[in-house]
Amino acid sequence: MPIKLYRPTTPSRRHTSVLMSKDLDKVRPLKSLLTDKRIQAGRNNTGRITVRHQGGGVKQQIRLIDFKRDKFEIPGKVATIEYDPGRNARIALISYRDGEKRYIIAPIGLVKEMQVISSKKTLELQIGNTFPLELIPQGTLIHNLELEPGKGAKLARSAGSAVVLQVIEGDFAQVKMPSGEIRLIPKTCLATIGQVSNQEFRNIRWGKAGRMRHKGIRPTVRGKVMNPVDHPHGGGEGSNPIGQKRGPMNIYGKKALGIKTRKVNKGSAKLILKRRPSKKKR
User: What is the CATH number of domain 3-201?
Assistant: First the structure.
């Protein structure tokens, strides 16, 4: 959907844009597929802050999404296209022929009254349908991709995301991720045809701090403006550099940029054929 720009009636309105919601149905979410969301404010079970800059925000309810798509050979009809406060993609309410209703991630092009199905037998190449990778033609855009058969979708679930199925060799399918990484995935894993909806989400300009507070994101203070006791970058007078340090550090004194966090001996490393390209230094 298009992005709406406001007239610059205030300083914040000058830099604010919103996403139009004409594609959404004005209905209440299905109550049986809702659950309460507890605001942890970045704290663990002992009350200590483990993730900074979180807290507050509007009250939300979690929509229970069907990531497994395990109602095989039972067609369903799209009842509504709805907004989900817990994710940046649209969701669709599917009403199956046996009377059950489930939420799924809505791909681009999915509209009301369309039929969707999950199948392990026949291939019907239509947006929103779910099949094993071994049935999907090469070069197809897919989303909601499993890493292990039957464990539910883990990859390509955010707005605008899509994975390209390149080739199938032996027991594995070769897919190209949005980051450019190429990896092997068992060919019996399920994937959904199409690209995730709401691809314009990344172009939104939030405009002011208040909109971020509504999302539960608290302000971030630069380390340079802190005291030395509070941050490794702190101290000095005026606009000073970070001192005789090899590179930027976080508040705990560890490297903040450019350090690899993936475990060297991780089991899935053998399934990665090509790592994502590194960002070029400007």
Answer: 2.40.50.140
Under 8 Å between Cβ of 90 and 103: no
C-alpha to C-alpha distance for 176 and 234, rounded to whole angstroms: 42
The pTM assigned to this predicted structure is 0.86
Question: Are 259 and 251 contacting, i.e. CB atoms less than 8 angstroms apart?
Answer: no
β-bridge partners, 145: 155
C-alpha 188/C-alpha 176 separation (Å) is 17
d(CA 182, CA 172): 12
Q: CA neighbours within 13 Å on the CB side: how many for 227? A: 2
| Per-residue pLDDT at 280 | 59
Please calculate the CA angle 90-192-82 and round it to the nearest 5 degrees. Answer: 15
User: For the chain, what are the domain ranges?
Assistant: 3-201
